[in-house]
Amino acid sequence: xxxxxxxxxxxxxxxxxxxxxxxxxxxxxxxxxxxxxxxxxxxxxxxxxxxxxxxxxxxxxxxxxxxxxxxxxxxxxxxxxxxxxxxxxxxxxxxxxxxxxxxxxxxxxxxxxxxxxxxxxxxxxxxxxxxxxxxxxxxxxxxxxxxxxxxxxxxxxxxxxxxxxxxxxxxxxxxxxxxxxxxxxxxxxxxxxxxxxxxxxxxxxxxxxxxxxxxxxxxxxxxxxxxxxxxxxxxxxxxxxxxxxxxxxxxxxxxxxxxx
Length: 260
Fold this sequence. Notes:
There is one protein chain. The protein is of the alpha/beta class. It contains 8 helices and 6 strands, in the order βαβαβαβαβαβααα. The chain has helices at 19-30, 55-71, 92-105, 141-154, 170-179, 188-193, 197-211, 217-220; strands at residues 7-10, 36-40, 82-86, 109-112, 161-163, 183-184. It has a 6-stranded parallel beta sheet with strand order 1-2-3-4-5-6. Mean pLDDT is 85; it is low at 229-260.
């Protein structure tokens, strides 16, 4: 019987005075159940949460949570990978800072991205545009994918990334992969289309790969950065998931102890 992959997303309490303590408690209580852990510092709906994306704040948070994880007792497969989920509304300097935190702390990967507080395109002309909260779905796609591509570039393609935000088709998933994602997540499309969205997107993704001459997903990861004018291929030495190569079949691309 095939098993699913369980990722657990950690966030601080709204009224918390010590965010790192919240994340560490969650790690100690829930970490044993996870195939991977996400430190979410980018939800726009929790006051002050995005301030944790600053270089000093994020470094301190990751070090404490990682330390809690590493002090726990794990089985043969070791601890679950630790990823950080970031905002699509970052400045270039913010992105550079996060890339440096990833390098220094040894974070296992990034989830890119959360919802946006911006209201792009015609969304900004609607009566609801002034409502508070994060925007998801198709309007988020370009912004989230651009952030994904930027972080792939800033980390030299060496950090596994999960692409999320506005994925509504296999073509969308393919664009995330070409931008640098080794894995892709769905939210809004899954809510609207239901479980059938997954096999439909997988079929479309296979067609995209064949169209562009890729034998598998792994070959396509970060492909946009290898186009003429991009950095040399040698700059992008990311380890990509072997499991993801079988794009047409269910596979667990995350295993306990290592992300891929």
